[in-house]
Amino acid sequence: MKDWRIYARPDIYLNKDIDKLFMQIAKKFIETGMDYQKANGSFVVALGGGRTPKRMNQKIAELSNYYNLDWSRVFLFFSDERCVTKEHDCSNFKMIYETLVKPLSIPLQNVFRIQGELGADAAAANYEKDIISFFRNSMKKTFDLALLGLGKDCHTASLFPGASALKEKHRLIVPGGKGEEGLERVTMSYPLINSSSNIWFLICGEEKRRAFNELLNGEYNPYCNPAQGVFCKNGDMVYFTDIEM
């Protein structure tokens, strides 16, 4: 994999006021969704989990009353998931259900969750089938937007430093290994993430400074800094951050 940063630097949206940053990305999310719905009828998104996206999702829900995004034509997928039940406190599905799906009355048939309770191998295989089936039966070829986070070790989704998932070139969904909490993960692979029409990173908190610096300026080595291996082939690559480098 070549260093894409040489010829395609991402856009960086910096706002040191975290509330204003969340409001900025929430507004852009809704407006982007409206644009895609106007162009081809739906908005198909891959979302990540974690504490920071939870706060952003709450801003999206707050702003939704001021815009005409049709949430019945929004389709949600998951960049990764822990191998737990959907009711588990560590479940990305649970967080997104509570902060987006329920408040905005998004139809459950539009929410494609990873069945982590099946175990990493079975959950990955089933989710890949779900994704292939969805895009085969829709007018879309890939996600309109993948919205990702950044870990302190420069991981993104559940693509961790040194993991075998980083070498995957064909499969769309793979086991990601164990996260810091000791739970097995399932994750989208580089080929699937990088095919998205737009890719945004939400990078917040001083504890992410080293990772953000590696992402932007470090020696290109996705095997050690997995977020470096994420690049948008087809559209906008944007980093939203409160960290001034």
Concise synopsis of the structure shown:
This protein has 245 residues and is of the alpha/beta class.
What does this structure look like?
- The chain has helices at about 20-40, 50-65, 90-105, 120-135, 190-195, 210-215, and strands at about 10-15, 45, 75-80, 80, 145-150, 175-180, 185-190, 200-205, 235-240.
- By secondary structure, it is α/β, with parallel strands linked by helices.
- It has one domain (about 10-240): Rossmann fold (3-Layer(aba) Sandwich).
- Strand 2 (about 45), helix 2 and strand 3 form a beta-alpha-beta unit.
- Helix 1 crosses helix 2 and helix 2 runs parallel beside helix 3.
- The mean pLDDT is about 95.
| Largest sheet, strands/sense/barrel | 6 strands, parallel
Oligomer: single chain
| Poorly predicted regions | none
Radius of gyration: 17 Å
What CATH architecture label applies?
Answer: 3-Layer(aba) Sandwich
Counting structural domains, the number is 1
Q: Which secondary-structure class do the elements indicate? A: alpha/beta
Biggest sheet, spatial arrangement of strands: 1-9-8-5-2-3
Integer average pLDDT: 95
Strands, total number: 9
Number of helical regions:
6
Shape annotation: globular
Distance between the amino and carboxyl termini: 26 Å
Stated plainly, the CATH topology is called Rossmann fold
CATH class group: Alpha Beta
Q: Please state roughly what percent of the residues sit in beta strands, choosing from under 5%, 5-15%, 15-25%, 25-35%, 35-45% or over 45%.
A: 15-25%
